[in-house]
Amino acid sequence: MKKLIGIILTLCLVLSLTVSALAASKPEITKQPETATTSKKGAVSFSVTVKGTVSSYTWYFVNPETGDKVSGKKLSSVVKGVKVSNPNSKKISLSRVPDSMHGWSVYCHVNGNGYKIDSDTVFLYVNGMAVPGEEPSPSSEGSNESAAVPEAAPASAESGQEPAPADTTDAPAPSSAEADVQPEGGDAGEGADSDIIAENRTITVTSPSKVLLKLDSKGNATDAAPVSSLEFTNAGSFAVRSDDPIKSWTVNGIRFEPAQPVNEFKVTNVTESIVLDIKTVRTSTAEAELDESKICKVTCKGCTFTYLSKGLRSVTEGEVPSGARIKVIADNSDLASGGYSVNSGEPESVGKASLQLTVTEDVTIVAGK
Predict the structure, then answer these.
(1) What does DSSP say about strands 236-251 and 254-256: parallel, antiparallel, or unpaired?
(2) 34 in helix, strand or coil?
(3) Phi, psi dihedral angles at 33 (to 5 degrees)
(4) What is the separation, in whole angstroms, between the first and last Cα of the chain?
(5) For residues 362 and 107, what is the distance between their CA atoms, to the nearest angstrom?
(6) Pairing state between β 229-233 and 56-62
(7) What 3-state class would DSSP assign to 50?
(8) Of 45, 142, 143, 304, which has the fewest Cβ atoms less than 10 A away?
């Protein structure tokens, strides 16, 4: 018996020492990568310092427009022109960086001794990148108050541009080099005095989502009905509101991301036409609480829909509980190019093969309106 007890104690000691050794060798990131900026077709590098046993480093680059993630090893095959050195080391280097990588996020996945950890996510910026079809906006250095968007700064706590909920600090928009003359008193509304601004121009703001609200010179909404397109004369301001928390937005290719998702932000001093792309945090099908007591009727014209939780597989008409998530698919690409209209509203998701939405009332969806 004593011999058996001795064997058991020995095994326990060995196991304890083994666990301690494994814990001691867990990789620990002691120096995080940093956001980097390069010139057009320039070079840039990202590095990470790790304490402990490391079996592999894998760098990942994420496209802010699509959310697609690509490893450093495959980056040159996905992004035309860029050259990659040491993709699986603690320091990765890029050369001939194209404009298309402006605003991409970067992080390193570290694997060692059975542990997997990710570094902080940082950003890659390209100086002097011109917006397609527009003249380049001035950078944050030397710009006046109307040129309020830094050339390469996400709206995060780190950049000091963190947005706030309604009626708090505004999140400014880019300014055109052609429109640096503002009305006296800061009035950016449509009623600008022609004696102050000699030539009238039409400023257009568009968004894939119907969340735009025109603001007056005091920042109050002038129309309670959200739209997907606004027009101003020479200058203007607008608010963006969403029932789903907004996690990030992109203004003419420049990405902004608050420290925490918000339901509203404001864009002021709009002096050039801009395209706004908004990313929201949506509730997954598994998390959605469906109200089975209320049934909604869905009708698709020129399209079919699928109830993502159960039943109603690819039908044009049917009933779903309130709160159900459905996926809508156009009958053909011609209809998809015209977008989808919900209850006779403005077409959205133009050019998209499909879209998803949460049904809370009877809806009629028309593809290609």
Answers:
(1) antiparallel
(2) coil
(3) -65, 165
(4) 85
(5) 44
(6) unpaired
(7) strand
(8) 142
Say what percent of the chain tops pLDDT 70.
70
The vertex-171 CA angle with 182 and 187, nearest 5°, equals 25
The structure tokens 């735009």 sit at 212
Structure tokens at 38: 């390069």
Burial state string for 50-77 with b = 16 or more CB within 10 A and e = fewer than 16: bebebeebbbbbbbbeeeeebebeebbe
**Token pair 């709206």: residue:** 155
Per-residue pLDDT of 166-218, as tens digits, reads 333 344 444 333 333 333 333 433 443 434 434 678 889 988 778 899 988 88
The model's pTM is 0.34
Q: How many CA atoms lie within 13 A of 208 on its CB side?
A: 16
- Sorted by sequence, the CB contacts under 8 Å of residue 243 that are 6+ apart come out as 263
Name 174's Cβ contacts closer than 8 Å, sequence gap at least 6. Answer: 131, 137, 147, 148, 149, 251, 252, 254, 272, 274
Distance of CA 167 to the CA centre of its chain: 23
Which helix (H) or strand (E) segment is 71 a member of?
Answer: strand 69-71
Considering only CA atoms, which of 226, 277, 227 is closest in space to residue 256? 277
Burial class (CB in 10 A: 0-12, 13-18, 19+), 17: exposed
DSSP letter (8 states) at residue 101: G
Residue of 363, 331, 330, 332 lying closest to 349 (CA atoms): 330
For the chain, how long is the longest CA-to-CA vector? Answer: 104
Residue from 126, 165, 163, 167 nearest 148 by CA:
163
Please report the DSSP string for 259-311 in residue order.
SS-EEEEEEEEE-S-EEEEEEE----TTT---EEEEEEEEEEESEEEEESSSS
Quote the Cα angle for 249-251-252, to 5°.
140
Give the pair of three-digit tokens for residue 156.
Answer: 């995060």
Placement of tokens 């011109």 in the chain: 130
Average pLDDT value over all residues in the chain:
75
Give the C-alpha separation, 219 to 188, whole Å.
10
β-bridge partners, 299: 317, 364
Higher pLDDT, 291 or 104: 104
